[in-house]
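Model the whole thing, not chain by chain.
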Amino acid sequence: NAGVTQTPKFQVLKTGQSMTLQCAQDMNHNSMYWYRQDPGMGLRLIYYSASEGTTDKGEVPNGYNVSRLNKREFSLRLESAAPSQTSVYFCASMHAGQGGGNQPQHFGDGTRLSIL
Amino acid sequence: GDSVTQMEGPVTLSEEAFLTINCTYTATGYPSLFWYVQYPGEGLQLLLKATKADDKGSNKGFEATYRKETTSFHLEKGSVQVSDSAVYFCALSDQGAGNKLTFGGGTRVLVKP
């Protein structure tokens, strides 16, 4: 029972490099989310996809792009990495039908990204 | 916009002590409220939730009551164990477009034997 799977688990980049963080869920959820976690700041929403084919900005979208490849997969891309993007990135998914705000989000184990 | 404020940690307790983590929120409308727990090196797991005023969420000995009049959702456990050492996050769902979650800053709890 995999749930939400994120790859890679760890990555070190140099400033200016690009990379894509991958996320896949096997729960047939329609909504998916990308967060970053920084010390003392909780989790902040970067982008989300309420349903397949749609994406929207969250609280901190600058410097990121996303692609909802299909219902299962939602990727996050850093086009030109900066040290300020050093963080732990979490992907989450949920089933957002009627009363969807009552449902919990399910989280992956995170990607720890360091940018030098 | 929506916001969640929770007490800063770390909170250090002895085993079998009583735990309270305060959480207050600001939101328009009627949000759902959640507590998530994060163990070292892992993602967040739902601990409990409450979807309307006066609801009590409970799980694994933890409880929290949705208090609309004080806009609070404090987490409590009567007797903590070493295995409860983790970071706890209070969050609300806006139930609007995207059902986005707004998180508090997290409270680290360390339980010593």
